[in-house]
Prior knowledge:
The protein is α/β, with parallel strands linked by helices.
Amino acid sequence: MTGLQGLTTLAAHARLKEMSGEPIKPRGRDAVSAQPDGAVPQAGTSTSEDIAAFVANARALSPHAPGAKGRLIFALDATMSRQPTWDMACALQADMFRETAALGSLDIRLVYYRGFNECRATGWISDSARLAALMSKIDCRGGDTQIGKVLSEARREAVASGVRAVVFVGDAMEENVDELCAKAGELGMLKVPVFVFQEGHDAVAEQAFREIARLTGGAWCRFDPGAAAQLRELLRAAAAYAAGGREALLKLAKTASGAARLIGQMK
């Protein structure tokens, strides 16, 4: 079985479990390991032919074609200190659906990490009330950041069913920045921009977040702790891009500061 066939098979099994919309663990080399010590299996080496085939297959599934359904991965840091922002995001996610109502349909896949090696994803959700209900059942737990798993999940989903954009909301980065940049570069090859919205002023996180945004062709923006209005504007802009592409974001940028901040950085 080739690497791409394996990805397709895993994606098919995952979609069967996603019908309920309940969170599932992302699969593959960056999923939580079943080994007692929690070690993550080492990745194999891809040949140039594997990479070319991977990119061709993902672009064939790209949602960027006119009339395609917008798909947005909404990723959140759900470690212990993030509960206030999680609650705020739960309230604001409805604005993303409202923003895109006139542009076309929007599907959102929630991805979050918390605790010890726990990183989970929901199925694709097209209803604000359903997403809010799922988010209200999730509590934040202490643990390290797992941004690499979020990026790997976005890559897998881009290949399996197409992703137009990724939103990540967080305030810290405790991982190897070079490894994160390598994963971000893969998303950049697939034309999947990552919009990184940083809460606060952590300098280490900012450096990594800016690089992730740059390598994917996305954007980095800061919002003040607890600033719901700022985060709302940024989420609206990201949703507009996911549903209507660059043209929709340009149109929104004429009246919304969040959209203007994003489009000003995108390649």
